[in-house]
Amino acid sequence: MRKSPYFSLFNHAMFRKQLLFYFITILTPVLIIVTIYIYLVADDQKVQIQQASDESLKRIANNVGNVIEQVNYFSLQLSFMNNLNVMLKDPFQANIYDYATVKEQLRNQISSNPLFYSVYIYSLQDRKVLTTNEGLFTENDFFDKAALELLNGDDNQASTVKYRSRVIKETPMDRSQEVITFYRSIPISAKIPQGMLIINVQKEIFASVIRNMSDVNSETFMILDDDNGIILAPERLNATHSRLLQIDTRQSIDGLTKIESEDGDFFANTLKLDWNGWTIVQIVPYANFKEVMQNKLFSVVKTVLIIAFVGLAISYLFAFIMYSPWLRIRETLAAFVKKADSSENEGEDEYGVVDRTIKGMIETIKQNKPILKDRLIQDLLYHNYYEKSSIELRLDQAGIRFEHAHFLMIVATADLSRPEPLEKNEKHLTLFGLIEQELQKDWRFIGTIIDNARFAYIVNVPKERLDDAFREQLVSSMTKLGQVVYGKLLVSMQFCVSDVTDMENISLSYEQVKRVLNYTPVMNKFDVLFAGDANDSSRFPYPLATQKKLIYSILELQHEKAEACIREWFDQSMIPTKHAYKKLQETIVVMMSNVMNALSQEGYEIDIISDIVDVLKCNECRNRDELCEYILMSIHRLIDYLISLKESHGLNDYVAKAITYMENRYSESLSVSDIAEHIGLSNGHLSRTFKAETGKSPMEYVTELRIQRSKDLLKNQNYTLQKIGMLVGYHDYHGFIRSFKKVEGITPSEYRKALFKN
């Protein structure tokens, strides 16, 4: 059982291509949408992380602002101390007691709040520093010179410096302390500052207060001053925090930024405090974002797989629907198109098959263009069309266009009886090409081959009738053409020209020419015949005198007189320009029939005479000369026959020749026709003459001759019966046995046994 091709679709490259195309068509927009979706989800997730981080940073900023506001408030209270302001106005009048009083007041203010580490009063007039913890120092002897560095050289500069994170390294108690230093110029009411209030806040306690006030994990944020120094940091710094400290957060981080570190990737978000230049940095683990995106991606992948599976099914359905016609086309074309090289076309898809088929069709059309053109001409000649418009359309499709509306038919008949080195097919093709080559010099035409010796041409002419001038032009052109053909190929040509007509009635012109072509036996080799002249109604006298003279010469057994009579009549009366062709041809047939009838009345057998003179063969002659030669040959054979009858005595010479031929050829396949052809008689004449002379038919004589020869061969035991049958002309073993038994009454084997027994 033949397996359906639909069960092995994947074996077809074109089906796989279509399936892949439809699947990609479905999957591509899905992947684009998924990519956009993933991008939007990732962006949305980052926005959410940034929004949450921004909120946290704002809360931390508010807490920082509240704490600093308390410090500012404290500094404002200190700046209103009366003793302090009096001392700053005239520091040179102040004594030790005054300094001690102010120191004690300051100390009492900060002792109740652990946030404050120490307070410095820097007098700009006498360049002395009063501390709450250590006492009074000159500027040169002051241990914390770092606190005064920003003030050196510009007394007004302090007003712009608000906060500073630093480490007090050298103290009278030889211990360092991390502090945040706040500066305020005093007194507040003075236009020109007379001193600076420097408040040192313990950084650790400040950071602890911020952490306690914030609802954010203290490990996830840092506060840096405007020099990227740490204001607040997690208690334990890891690689992530160290990475943040290595970069300038003020320049490198703008919004939510991904940063890589040894502890893993993370997002960093910043908020800069405009009022003091500090930057709050929050750290968001990248793993949180990654986990959310992985969950989303997993869901998307499941969705894409489902869509891909459904899309594959739909693609298969579409590919099946679209491929089915191609498969039927391929199977149909496979019955007509053969691959030139199976290895070259191996794996060829349907597109290749169709493309190769179309190319083959185009090539076939090109090769068959002459055939198609020939078919068109044949249809015109035999009127195989319905209306005139179809003629014009087909001519136009074949690229054939004529200038004039008038046409005539020319049929050229060639005498190909002359032996030539060219094969018969090659000769008539060469002849057709030569005629077209010469004819196109004078005329616009289309032509075809009717048979091996006749060629038809539809010639476009400018005139609507054959006048004398036009006839002379045609005769001149055809005569010149015949001379060229004879000069190159030694082939004589006869031309028959129809009356002028239109394309629609060209078939009638062809019929007119065909009727005239029946009279070629009475035409000369190089005649140009006009079909309209064949209808001449002039009277033609029957050559009765010639007929009587011919019969007399035959009965008198005079070859020369009979031949002279025929030639004289042909020269004087067989002139196509003088008498109609039809009448001439009919006269010849009637005259030869009358000659045969006259001999029959003389007592000669009409059957034998009919075999010698075949009147109907006169119509098969190709021209006047060939007709004359055939009639002369028939007359000579007829006279020879009459002579043989008169000279015959004893055994007829024809019978003797037949017996000799039989004795020499009995081992071959013989027939009456073979024997009659050899001795120059008809089959009937030979049979009648042979039986009259021998009492047997020719084939009975052959049979007896063969049996007699086989009896001689049966004496030799080395020959088998089949071999003996072959040697005496029987190629059929059983035929030999039947013939032997019919003649001898026993079979060959029985004859051999009896022969050797005796």
What does this structure look like?
This protein is 54% helix and 12% strand. It is built from 25 helices and 16 strands. Strands 3-2-1-6-5-4 form a 6-stranded antiparallel beta sheet. The chain has a 5-stranded antiparallel beta sheet with strand order 8-7-11-10-9. A hairpin with a 4-residue loop joins strand 1 and strand 2. Helix 8 (350-367) crosses helix 9, helix 14 (544-555) runs parallel beside helix 16 and helix 15 runs antiparallel to helix 18. The two termini are 71 Å apart.
Present the secondary structure layout.
Layout: H1 13-79, H2 82-89, H3 96-111, E1 116-123, E2 128-131, E3 136-138, E4 163-168, E5 177-186, E6 195-202, H4 203-213, E7 221-224, E8 230-232, H5 239-246, H6 249-252, E9 257-259, E10 266-272, E11 279-285, H7 286-334, H8 350-367, H9 369-381, H10 388-397, E12 406-414, H11 424-439, E13 444-449, E14 454-461, H12 468-489, E15 493-497, H13 506-517, E16 528-530, H14 544-555, H15 559-573, H16 581-601, H17 606-612, H18 624-647, H19 653-665, H20 672-679, H21 683-694, H22 698-713, H23 721-727, H24 733-744, H25 748-757
Parallel strand pairs: 15-16
Antiparallel strand pairs: 1-2, 1-6, 2-3, 4-5, 5-6, 7-8, 7-11, 9-10, 10-11, 12-14, 12-15, 13-14
Helix pairs in contact: 1-4, 1-7, 7-8, 8-9, 11-12, 14-15, 14-16, 15-18, 19-20, 19-22, 20-21
Q: Identify the overall geometry.
A: rod-shaped
Q: Count up the helices.
A: 25
Mean of all residue-level pLDDT scores: 80
Distance between the terminal alpha carbons, to the nearest Å?
Answer: 71 Å
